[in-house]
Amino acid sequence: MLKTQCIKVCELTEKVGTFIRNELSRVQSGDIEVKGKNDFVSYVDKTAEKLLIEGLEDLIPGAGFIAEENTRSVRGDHFNWVIDPLDGTTNFLHGLPCYSISIGLLRDTIPVLGVVNELNLKECFYAWENSGAFCNKNSIQVSRKQKLSDSLLATGFPYTDFNQISSYLDLFRELMGKSHGLRRLGSAAVDLAYVACGRFEAFYEYGLKPWDVAGGGFIVQQAGGKVSDFSGGDNYLFGKELIACTPGIYQEFQAIVAKHL
pLDDT tens for residues 158-168? Predict the structure, then answer.
């Protein structure tokens, strides 16, 4: 069942992705709402979310929705879709080509399906329970690098919660000196997808929401990667902090992150 559902979700993100791309040149400054400091939303996010929910609600009868823009807020008894209709809204509003649709499916509290559709390169990353991971029908897996010194890393910069900024910058400084470098793309879902296919060896960020990580985190796991909170536990989905990493460098990388954050 999950394979069929996953394929349908991929198809749905393609349709909604077309809508999002078509609106890129139409969004005006007056269409942008401010939810909080550096936290923006437009009619594109809200309309995309409604279209996704309309497409998902019949796939698993009785499933609930945990969605960023809260256009539908109902929890299911067993299954819940976790939706970010436009991960990388700030990029989108500035015309920067890195943003995505991210969808995860939870059975109780356990992710069992994930889709991240990067809309600019038209790369759809996906996985379902015990499936392995895929991008556009091709199997993918995490990097096989064994040393942090050989690794390219990704992170997200804090934009609303600056309580840990000093520690964050100390960590950033240490990792710059111990890796091939760090990148900040502006879409956590895309960062996770790129860990899953081996473009990055690791990704970390704090201040994350479930819809940022539910789909991509699951895809990383199905691609052979490790996903945890900063302390090495499994509270990454609702704990607002995440490490996603190839197994070869996980122990070294997690220890450095935990030392600072």
Answer: 777 788 889 99
